[in-house]
Amino acid sequence: MAQLQIQNLHVEFGGLRAVDNLDLTVEEGEILCLLGPNGAGKSTTLDLICGKTQPTGGSIRFQGTELSGLLEYERARCGIGRKFQVPSVYKELTVAENLSVAQSRHPGMWRALFTFGRGDTATQRRVLERVGLAEKAGVKAGNLSHGETQWLEIAMLLTQDSQLILMDEPTAGMTIQETEKTADLFRQLRGSHTLIIVEHDMSFVRRVADRIVVMNRGAKLAEGSVEEIENNAAVKTAYLGH
Ligand SMILES: Nc1ncnc2c1ncn2[C@@H]1O[C@H](COP(=O)(O)OP(=O)(O)OP(=O)(O)O)[C@@H](O)[C@H]1O
User: Which domain of life is it from (predicted)?
Assistant: First the structure.
């Protein structure tokens, strides 16, 4: 059984079908890149999966469970994590304290810190090593570079046991070195986590994607390997049209 099964999903905003009868299947542990011209419905698709937006109709099943009707935090508890373009870290807290807040899964950062103290430090160390921030545990999040802040946010999702991680342009604003490190991190997460990434940077997509789905006008236009998509005439036309 696929980890994520989307069938006939649609949502309308004032008469506009931002996502239009979308069918999408994602296997456990794969890296799926979601491409498409501006306004194709990519971010809205992530919003529908994580519960930020409720669909007009259709079905989203995660590990066999229908997500319709579940709120955003309930989906997070099921193992779905969303990383937004603007990082949602607590700048006044250290890297380790941010992980404690993420680990607690309780609303409210102060309650989390006072109730759970420093959290599960062994897990924190393991996760920080994984994302390359082991040396920064005591540094305030506000003093991290842009790339480091993005990795901290990914670390927060890893400590919450997010099995499926949804990301919107994770490399936007990163230096070349940071982008390369992010590609390495994603390749290392492959297999143990499922990633759905909205990304415009084709050189990054080539480095990380197991599979690509191209959306246009809310619907799926094409899917396949990087090579298949780069040679797909309908995809070229959709991009040139924009
Ligand atoms: N909350 C909303 N209310 C009204 N319209 C919306 C809302 N969210 C998205 N839209 C519209 O839905 C369409 C799809 O938007 P979406 O952001 O999903 O596209 P995208 O493929 O992610 O584009 P981009 O690459 O530019 O971010 C657009 O026409 C957008 O204006």
Answer: Bacteria
